[in-house]
Structures are given as structure tokens and as C-alpha cells.
Write a structure and sequence with these properties.
3 helices, four-stranded parallel β-sheet
């Protein structure tokens, strides 16, 4: 299984502002890797095809490669106060619903070794999706 990883950065300190920034900047980046829904996607008028905003997303990072069958998406969030947990969990859970059967999970942390160990765990746990995992 291949895991695509998005490292979220530069969010405001306040939870409402951070959520707004995530939804404006990072959500389109994650959604750019969604497969078309069943029977959809052959033309832009009905929600499929390429949307104009997906090619020039507001992020300094290089775009992720296109997803293939069996891939998962992990969103890595920087540490923040407990007030951020609810909006982050809601975003991860809803993306997991949209991307099904592909898996979407979130990791909160800054230590690259802890994040790598959590990614390795997720690779071995194909039933885990829609979770927000905090690491030390």
C-alpha cells in the first residue's frame, strides 16, 4: 500500500481561524486526490473532471502524485491546543467518507520519528480510517 502524506503548516493559532485556513488551503489539496464518485467524473458539469482551482492550489509544496488503487492519505497536523481537535477530527472523518474505500487518517505531532512509526503502524492496519492520532 502506498501512503500519500500532506504536511499541514502555517495555520493560525486560534481554532476558528486555523479551521478556515485548513478548509481554504489544505482541503482542496487533499480533495485533488479523490477518485470520481461512482459513475461520475466524466464531465465537469456534474461534479467530475478537472476543476479550475485544482491545478494551482494555494500551497508552496509540490503537488502530490495522483492516487492509485490501494493508496491511503495521511494528513499530518502540527501540534496545537486541545481546542483544535474537534475541527481536525471532523475534517479527517469527512474526507475518509468521501475517499472510501481509500483510507484517510490524521496525525498530530512534530517529532518525525514518532510520525514515521505511526505511518508504519497505519500501513499494517488496513481497517483504520477516519482517525486523528496524536503522537508525542
Amino acid at each position: 500500500m502506498v501512503t500519500l502524506q500532506i504536511d499541514v503548516a502555517d495555520l493560525p493559532a486560534g481554532p476558528l481561524d486555523a479551521a478556515a485556513e485548513f478548509y481554504a488551503t489544505w482541503l482542496p489539496r487533499a480533495r485533488a486526490h479523490l477518485p470520481p464518485r461512482n459513475g461520475e467524473g466524466d464531465h465537469a458539469e456534474h461534479g467530475g473532471g478537472e476543476s479550475p482551482g485544482r491545478e494551482s492550489l494555494p500551497s508552496a509544496s509540490a503537488p502530490l502524485p495522483s492516487p492509485r488503487a490501494g493508496e491511503a492519505l495521511v494528513i499530518v497536523f502540527p501540534p496545537a491546543s486541545h481546542e483544535h481537535r474537534a475541527w481536525r477530527l471532523a475534517a479527517v472523518q469527512e474526507l475518509a467518507r468521501e475517499m472510501a474505500p481509500r483510507r484517510v487518517n490524521g496525525i498530530v505531532g512534530a517529532d518525525r520519528q514518532d510520525i514515521a512509526r505511526t505511518l508504519a503502524y497505519l500501513e499494517r492496519a488496513p481497517g483504520v480510517t477516519g482517525q486523528l492520532l496524536a503522537v508525542a
